[in-house]
Every structure is written in structure tokens, then in C-alpha cells.
Amino acid sequence: MTIVTAAAMVAAGAWIFVLLSPASDRSLPASSSNASSDAPMTTLASTTRAVPSAAEAAGQAMVQLRAVTTHGVVLVTGIAVAEGGLIATTADALSGLRSLAMIGPDGHLLRASVMGVDRDSDVALVTVPDDVPVAPFADDTGLAAGAPDMTLTLAGSNDGTPVLHCDPGSVSDVGGPVSQGPADGMPAIFSTAPGVLEEAGDPLLNASGAVIGLLYDDDSAAGADTITFLPSQLVLGVADDLRSTDRVAPGWLGVGGTTAANSTGAAVMTVIADSPAAGVLTPGEVIVGVNSVPVRTMAELRARLYVLTPHSPVALSVIDGTATKVVDVTLGGGS
């Protein structure tokens, strides 16, 4: 059972291509690296493994980050979500961060900084000293098991230059919850595991080459046959909040429930007294959409609601028995 205490994402069109809110005025935190000030500023990787032309735009939007942390040196992939070198990646790998750099041409390290982190979604927003082309994005609302996909990853060559790899796969499930780590309970896209070494933050693409997720956890390392990706709607929504307000301030709906049979919505089981949902929703109803964006699981409901702020009006599509209705709710403050 999940208590939905978060605020919601806007309609699907807001996730495509760029973030729309104004940039934060907050000065960026400093981080040190051995960056070369005269290093050429480009992140275009050389390619191997016959990268399809459809994946080239996303590949050009990728960067490889080198993080020095309290638990060692780690490599993380990031992808440009807005102009001006704004890069989204997963946050867990950056825990205990001491310094951060983007790996540029010929292995040069170019200084990077963390703009913001949201632990509950495991999304971090990073700035790099390069106006990296923004990746094309698509949402997961039309995805279904069996849909073809592609995973991109960057691997270092002998001279330290990032090399782009592409591996085909297919979607095995959409909307089920992340079951471990900081993003526990958030929705995920599960894909068949490619046969290369992945890095956190690697993008998952649809057949058209648009980004639909970022690698959260490589379950294949533990013998599983799928890997877990954070969906693009969640990544872009959180990154937009981090860019504009430095944090995610979730609102509160106030229902508890579970995923309906056959992943046909979020079934309401309890409604908290004096919550925004009180008097509007009743146990037994199934929420199937938020602001016209479909909801298939309780985890998806949480994500759809995650980045709307308190006091945001939300239109919920609800099935009550055999009838479908739309009810309006104003989200409350986090509890």
C-alpha cells in the first residue's frame, strides 16, 4: 500500500525537448578538478557497435562525469535536459561527493558542479562548461511490454576519449515500482539487459531515438535479466524543479492504495480524513489519469503527482464502478 503524498507532473507535452521554467538565480556550488582551461569544449564521442542514425542526437547530448567521492572514484553518465550545459543524472552515485568533472576530448577533465539533488527520485542536476545539445525526449505513456528500445553507454578508449556504444533491447514492463535504493516506490521502465558494462545515468531510447529513461540500477549484475530505468517524465520534472527552485516541494493528495488488476490504474483503498482527497475520492475508486496523462499503477500516480507544488489544482480521471468521471482536487502541503 502506498500513501500518495507528492504533487503532480504536468501534461505529457511539457516533457519534450527542453525545460520551460526560468533558471534559478542561485550561484552554483564550487567543485574542484584538474580541468585544463584551454581544453577544447566538445563532448561528441566517437562511435562503435553501429550506432543507429536515430540514436545520434541522444548520443551527442551525453556526457561522462568523473566523480571523486568518499567511497572512491566513479564514472557516471549524464544527458543534457536544457541549454547551457544542464545535465541530468542519477544522484546516488554522487553521494559523498568531493569533486566533479566532465571528461572531455582526449581525456581532459573539465570542471562540473552540482546544481541540485532530489534524493527521493534519485535525480541530480549538474552543470558542465559546455553548451551540450539538448537530447530529444519522449514520455512512457504509450510504451508497452515488447516495444523495442536501445541503451546508449559511454566507454573510455585507450586515449581516454569517451566512445559511444549502442545495444538493442526491448521493454519488459512499464510503471512497476522501483524496489530498492533511494527511489524506492517510484515508477520504472524495465528493459532487457544489454551485454555491455553500463553506467548510472545511461539513457534508454525508444525506436525513434528519443530518451525515455535513465539507468537507475543494473539488476543484470545480480543475475536478473532486466535493468531498471527512471522514466523521462520523472527525470525532466524533477530537473525542472531543481533548475527553477533548487528543490522539489511535493504537495499532498492523501490516499492510500495499490495497483489495480492488470495495471489498469491506481486503486484507492483509504482516504485520509481532512486531506485534499477527503470528500472527493472514496475507497474502491480507481485513478486512471492525472491532468489527462494516463496512470497505470500506484507508482505512476506517485510520479504524476510528484512535482506539482502544494495548492496546485489537479484533474483526476477516476473510474467508479463502470463510470468514468473527472474530479478536481487542490493538493495540500506535504505531511
For the record, what CATH class of the largest domain applies? Mainly Beta
Subunit organisation of the chains: single chain
Main sheet, how many strands, which sense, barrel? 7 strands, antiparallel
Net shape: globular
- Sequence of secondary-structure elements: EEHEEEEEEEEEEEEEHEEEEEHEEE
Taking all Cα atoms into account, the compactness measure Rg is 20 Å
User: In total, how many domains does the architecture comprise?
Assistant: 2
Count of helical stretches: 3
- What do we call the CATH topology of the largest domain? Thrombin, subunit H
Q: What is the end-to-end distance? A: 17 Å
Describe the structure.
With 335 residues, this protein is mainly beta. The chain folds into two domains: 42-245, Beta Barrel (Thrombin, subunit H), CATH 2.40.10.120; 251-333, Pdz3 Domain, CATH 2.30.42. Helix content is 8%, strand content 41%. It is built from three helices and 23 strands. Strands 1, 17, 18, 19, 20, 21 and 22 form a seven-stranded antiparallel sheet that branches. Strands 7-6-3-4-5-9-8 form a seven-stranded antiparallel sheet. A six-stranded antiparallel beta barrel has the order 10-11-12-15-14-13. It is globular. It starts with a strand and ends with a strand. Mean pLDDT is 83; it is low at 6-42.
